[in-house]
């Protein structure tokens, strides 16, 4: 975000079209020259308010479409059955995917636990799910999909296994405008970097689990 805003400051003419009144244009130019920090703050506030067009800040900040991801195994915000955890078979649950935006070339999926005591624990990293995928079967992946390393350094699904209390588990789905070229050693951070500037829509499903 900071890099994009700095780019705007270096080329302020891209944002000035927002102000059609010539007097305001002059005033804004003076603010940019005399108080760049004020200009930066103004852009941040306008972006938060949804008043700044995506063309000014670039593709990554465009209002993103929302994907619908659900599971017949548990309701959004509900408890994940033990079958899909370390207390059961530890297999991945069935997931259903709603309508995806046009131009989608592939889908990616990340499952993580932000409540882990040592920081976010990554359970599943998947990319290059075919764009036509509308269902991910239990304990399976569509042909062509690739799995990266989770926090156990395994290229597979790892079920919830909280050391104590109730943890939240987020299944995050991304629609991308390209097929990714990542190796088997790629992890969540590698996937997120590869997706930058190529995400058309995203959605998430959250489930909880507390050990028996």
Question: What can you see in these coordinates?
Answer:
The structure is a single chain. This protein is an alpha+beta fold. The protein folds into two domains: about 1-60, no CATH class; about 65-210, Alpha-Beta Complex (Phosphatidylethanolamine-binding Protein), CATH 3.90.280.10. Helix content is about 25%, strand content about 25%. The chain has six helices and nine strands, in the order H-H-H-H-H-E-E-E-E-E-E-E-E-H-E. The strands form two sheets. A six-stranded mixed β-sheet has the order 1-9-8-4-5-7, covered by helices on one side. A three-stranded antiparallel β-sheet has the order 2-3-6, with no helix packed on it. Strand 4 and strand 5 (about 120-130) form a beta hairpin. Helix 3 (about 20-35) crosses helix 4 (about 35-50). It is globular. Residues about 1-20 and about 50-60 have low confidence and may be disordered.
């Amino acid at each position: 975000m900071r890099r994009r805003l700095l780019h705007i400051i270096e080329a302020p003419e891209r944002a000035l079209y927002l102000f059609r009144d010539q007097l305001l244009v002059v005033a804004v130019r003076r603010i940019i020259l005399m108080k760049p920090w004020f200009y930066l703050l103004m852009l941040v506030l306008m972006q938060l308010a949804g008043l700044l067009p995506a063309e000014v800040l670039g593709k990554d900040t465009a209002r993103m479409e929302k994907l619908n991801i659900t599971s017949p195994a548990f309701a959004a915000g509900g408890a994940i059955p033990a079958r899909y955890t370390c207390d059961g078979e530890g297999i991945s649950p069935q997931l259903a995917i709603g309508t995806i935006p046009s131009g989608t070339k592939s889908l990616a999926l990340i499952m993580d636990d932000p409540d882990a005591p040592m920081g976010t624990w990554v359970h599943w990293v998947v990319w290059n799910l075919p764009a036509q995928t509308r269902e991910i079967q239990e304990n399976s992946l569509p042909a062509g999909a690739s799995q990266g390393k989770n926090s156990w350094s395994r290229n597979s699904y790892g079920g919830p296994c909280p050391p104590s209390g109730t943890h939240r588990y987020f299944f995050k789905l991304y629609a991308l405008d390209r097929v990714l070229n990542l190796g088997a050693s790629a992890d969540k951070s590698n996937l997120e970097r590869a997706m930058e500037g190529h995400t058309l829509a995203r959605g998430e499903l959250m489930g909880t689990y507390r050990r028996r």
